[in-house]
Design goal:
By secondary structure, the protein is an alpha+beta fold. The chain contains six helices and four strands; from the N terminus they run ααβααβααββ. α1 runs antiparallel to α2. The longest helix is centred in the first third of the chain and has 19 residues. The radius of gyration is 15 Å and the shape is globular.
Length: 154
């Protein structure tokens, strides 16, 4: 019980820290959403012993937003973009060289909290979120289409 309280205090303290480098390029509304997503993801990881919080990456944000926009426009779900792009392609376009990467998507959930909860209920999505090999994230939503990109740079 003490360990869990300590972890929750650590995560709450980290959530109060200033945004990471590069996040100042986002609008105020997007920054609040990014902070919320980062806190929720890092809290879930901390509860399973991964204490280092995920760092927001503008490049991963761009890759996530591109896929969220594409999926919402096409009214479909999938890891392949309308142009045939893969996650690797989108990361390369965003200028991110990844040594580890994963992508989650969802459609129909109303907000970040319910989207993260749905992913945690799915074994494959949960494994991506809890993968200690990833250190950075981008989280985007277009309407009720959500995309999370997780990666570690080389």
């Amino acid at each position: 019980m003490i360990r869990r309280s300590l972890i929750l205090c650590l995560v709450a303290g980290l959530a109060a820290c200033a945004p990471g480098p590069g996040t100042e390029r986002l609008s105020a509304g997007a920054t609040v959403d990014i902070a919320s997503a980062g806190t929720q993801l890092s809290t879930r990881r901390a509860m399973r012993g991964i204490l280092r919080p995920l760092i927001h990456s503008p490049a991963l944000q761009a890759a996530a937003q591109a896929q969220a926009d594409d999926l919402a426009t096409a009214e479909r779900l999938g890891h392949i973009g309308a142009d045939g792009s893969t996650l690797s392609d989108r990361l390369q376009r965003a200028g991110f060289e990844a040594c580890a990467a994963a992508e989650n998507f969802a459609q129909g959930t109303p907000d970040i909290r319910s989207t993260v909860a749905a992913w945690m209920d799915s074994p494959d999505h949960r494994a991506n979120i809890l993968d200690p090999a990833v250190t950075q994230f981008g989280f985007a939503g277009t309407g009720r289409t959500w995309v999370l990109v997780l990666a570690r740079p080389c």
